[in-house]
Amino acid sequence: MNQLVSDVENAIRSKFEGTSAPSSACKSGKEAVRHPQTQAERMAVLGQNVCYIVTAVVINEGRVLMMREAKRSCRGTWYLPAGRVEKNESLEEGVIREVLEETGLAFQPVSIICIDSQGTFWFRFTFVGCITGGKLKTLDEQDKESMEAGWFPAEEVFTSLPLRARDICPLIDLGLKWYETKQEQTICRLLPAKNSQGQVTVRLLAVKRVEKDDEKSLFCLVCHNSTGDGNHNCHPYFPSKSVGIDGSNITHVVDQLIKDFDSNLQYKKHGYVTVEHTGKPHGEADGVCLTVLVEVFPAVEEGGLKGKYQWFKVEEKSSTENIWKLIDVKGFVEFVES
């Protein structure tokens, strides 16, 4: 999915190259469609104002990998392998470490299947993937991380296994559906892109799909910076906003970004199509950028500038077809209202 969005970004950038030089507030190269950040935006610092939880849903022949809790408050209950991302650690590194510590098994992440949040700065990233080695932890090997690990039929997890909390049941259900319907479709895979982020930022990939005379077209919403005389002097970028400036959650940020363009617009939030995070160095790159795919109705033609906004027609046939397919097969990471 990261590549699909990158292809659209490249298409936008290539059309506007040579039309005007980027202003000092804008990025060049790959960053040409990124919203320029200001000093007033709050830096994300892991452990202070942001927390990332990583969870793994690993399924083998209908059986779910579970770990038995060792913590005093929930000792003896079962849960998915999960935990907090540590300082100077990426999301992938965090989930690999947690699975190894709690189950004894080596885990290879394949895709994120769910991103949910509570409040403003608590985010949970749920991964699916495969086991590549290791040895399942037994009771004789229990430690502070877990008592043991085991494989259980999904039905047993849902009905009779004593769980620490039932919030993992929808995640397991999503995992089962992913393995059944999306595992073989590479278009449905999303892993974090290794781009450093200072803030927690939400970007919009707002699209309109038009089908006319058996021809499919795709339009993307882009922004421009303007000079005092109203001329657009910068390469375009996707609408974006830093989360937490006004205490809003992701749902509110997406709604605000859309309403800033047109308060009467009809739209559907499909899901996440990119995640950007490195976690290194701590204190400077603890942020994350989440790109949300939003489809707008009804369809309109290219252009139609409204203030700093413009509808841009993607000319590349492959990019158009891939975004259409992504929406049709629901290959995105589904948007969880928060």
TrEMBL record:
Superkingdom assignment: Eukaryota
Signal sequence coordinates: none
InterPro entries: Nudix_hydrolase, NUDIX_hydrolase-like_dom_sf, NUDIX_hydrolase_CS, NUDIX_hydrolase_dom
GO molecular-function terms, A-Z: 8-oxo-dGDP phosphatase activity; 8-oxo-GDP phosphatase activity
Any Pfam family: NUDIX
Coiled-coil stretches noted in the UniProt entry, renumbered to this chain: none
UniProt keyword Zinc present: no
Domain Nudix hydrolase: 45-176
UniProt keywords, alphabetically: Hydrolase
Sequence similarity: Belongs to the Nudix hydrolase family.
Name used for this protein in its record: Nudix hydrolase domain-containing protein
Organism: Pocillopora meandrina
